[in-house]
Write a structure and sequence with these properties.
By secondary structure, this protein is α+β, with helices and mostly antiparallel strands. The chain is built from 10 helices and 16 strands. It starts with a strand and ends in a 7-residue tail after the last helix. Bound molecules: zinc ion (ZN).
Length: 423
Amino acid sequence: MIHMQLRYSFRLYPNGPQRAALARAFGCARVVYNDALRARETARAGGEAFPMIGDLSKLLITEAKKTEERAWLGGVSAVVLQQALRDLDAAYRNFFDGLKGKRPRMGAPRFKSRKDNWQSVRFTTNARWKITTGGDLSLPKVGNVRVKWSRNLPSVPSTVTVIKDAAGRYFASFVVETEPEHLPETDSVVGIDLGLGHFAVLSDGTKVDAPRFLRRAEKKLKRAQQSLSRKVKGSKNRTKARVKVARAHGAVADARREFHHQLSTRLIRDNQAVAVEDLAIKGLARTRLAKSVHDAGWSAFIAMLEYKSARHGRIFYRIGRFEPTSQVCSVCGVKDGPKPLHIREWKCGACGAALDRDINAAVNVAKAAGLAVSACRAQVRRAPVPAQRDEAGTHRDGQLTVAGIPVLRAGSGSQSAVSCRRA
Ligand SMILES: [Zn+2]
């Protein structure tokens, strides 16, 4: 049986004392991280052996708590401090693996600052955190924090990371071990062309645009950015405006993630196989289109398609483009040359099919993956269909779903502890 690790994030609403307790936890984890980094750098400079995590734990946590200047480390969960040491270990491992060419190169671990935009602490199982029957997140030495459950957890999570972002928002990110839950088989398959005109065009002719809730969030962000640019540098109003921009950014990111969840869930539910073009092949990322590519969040969306396929027994194809999809007629396969971007529709010179640029590309993507889609669907059709709004991602009528796919069977007591309520 394949086990999968999934990550689920939810907004947290700590009260005043809880925010203070979390600030202490962030601070203590940061101090231990920095102490360990200093110890390792000192050892390295002195040509000594790299201190092991067990030794660091004894020295920088257990022993340090007994000293006057680090006694306050006792005020937070010891697990949080242990995890800070593990984070540093992972940072070193990634750094060395980068040097060896095992993964992309990255910088050496750096000291953390209280001014960092991103603060986090991690609680593992032995920290004895839990989700209360009332649906709060109970954290050691912090208390029962209110959670806004936007989707259901498929099983009891093993780890929770509490994050505070640049906009001052708090999140709980749960790691959940789960087994694949295959959906009933279907005959449908789909090719997806990700584009700039529409977010996605499907080989069945559906054109999917960003939903209204996302466009609204984007508009709000734009207004906030414009307002910020008009504020005098160093002024109080500018600081306020900057917080507003950070919040609006967060709202856009949330709305986009929600949209990606809805669409990917629908595609995986409705199709046995999905094919999508490899974005590296698409070659847009380094062009002036880079910003819109980045904004569209294609890679996050593709990652969702991939993990949901694995999870629900669907087949996922990432295809490399063997030739520009707009040059090949998806009906007869004849390549009739490049067409400038403004040409959205044309008639195939060989077979006479009236082709829509985006749908033609989506059909070609499906065909390149070896999927049997009907090529006539590439022919021009009107009436674009918007993405469904009600696609879940939240649960309705007490029905348990994860992003629209039923996952949690009527369950054991431990599962009901994580079954969620609407905040
Ligand atoms: Zn043709």
